[in-house]
Amino acid sequence: MRSRLCILAVLVASSAAAQDLELKVTLVSPSAVIDSAVVTVAGGRIASVSSGAGSAKAVAIDGVMFPGLIDLHNHMTWNVLPNWQPPYLFANRYEWQELPEYAQKLNGPYTAMMNAGAGCDMNRFGEVKSIVNGGTATVGSFGPTAIEPERNRCIQGLARNLDFSADLTASRPLNHEPYRNVVFPFEISAAEEQAIRTVDPDSTDPARVHAAVMHLAEGTDAAARREFRLFRAHGYLRKGATVIHGVALAPDQIRELAAGGVGFVWSPHGNFILYGKTADVMTAIGAGMTVAIGPDWSPTGSAGMIEELGFAYRYSRDTLGGAIPEAALVQMATINPARLARIDGQLGSIEPGKIADFVVMKRRGSTAYQSLLSGRAADVLLVTIGGVPVYGDRALMRTLLPAAALEELTVCGEQKALHLSDDARSAQSWERVYGRLRDVMKPLGLQPAPLAACDR
After folding, report:
1. With contact defined as beta carbons under 8 Å apart, do 399 and 441 qualify?
2. What is the 3-state secondary structure (H, E, C) of 177-218?
3. Tens-digit pLDDT profile for residues 111-169
4. Under DSSP, is residue 122 helix (H, G, I), strand (E, B) or coil?
């Protein structure tokens, strides 16, 4: 049973000022381990990484620092909904989407909440959920529509929304990111098809799509596998494209994708819940594909990146005989997705000049990597985004931000704090967002889902 979130106090949400920091930790970035690292942050970026004692102002943390986790497969507004246990396994995604129980438990309430104008609050909930689970960048946010082209302004200031508001380039206008996140790649406009068909990760043209991620072959039957031929026929098989799921793909199809420079996002937890199996990830790795990992969504997947990584780690250890090295699994959540999204020049590792997005985990296991792979959301000691400590253990957050307004909460029995703005009057405080969601969900017989899985 997942424990309920306990809200203890109030404060803020929205963007906050970057901090100058000096932290002494064990560092994983993402394949090398430095046991006594001193990481300094200035102006929102990593200023230096060194070994030694650091200066007198260095804050020592008994934990392990990793690059911020980058999630290339999510559906943010859905993550406020409760966990759904399907009545049986399915052959493809089209089956469960037409199930009356799915309409009753998920799609119906989701539509009702959207119609009630709760979209912004649903997305803020999803982003806080991502942060609580170590995520600093994600996709699948509350994007613009023809009727409301600027509606996703309400999501600025939390996790990076790579498809709409990555906040990596000050001059880039909202909704003009060179990244596409497509759920149904065969049901999009001709203009969007052309954008994906001409994706070019090496282009310097800001109007050109540099990377695109698409759902493909989600299921186990011939209908799911047939999507590969459609993918190829549409001209999507090219460098800069990345596929999600790929459960039904045969080894030769995976190798053809790899030969074309296509990337792969693996979501094993949700695959097993819905289809009873997952993709042939070892063929993808063996073929040289860049493989990332993503939680999909929490109704039938993981609450966030930490839970998904833990599932993948146990699958590798118990089913694959440990075939995926620990370092490789960590790379699937850090530098690999950064490479697939073509943002590895700024994110994905902790080194001077890169943006200061990172997560610090409580020590667990016998290796530095296991602190993340065996960890839980409750073990997150600190999350920074752009040099801002936005979430972490309450005592540590007070040490780093002694004068800041903090919003307190309890996650899986551990006392945590949020710092998402310096404006305590914000209408987007966590308490207010949570309260509005609770009010809109109550007539539906629901309440906001827990922020983390506390039972693994």
Report:
1. no
2. CCEEEECCCCCCCHHHHHHHHCCCCCCCCCCCCCEEEEEECC
3. 999 999 999 999 999 999 999 999 999 999 887 777 777 777 777 778 999 988 888 87
4. helix
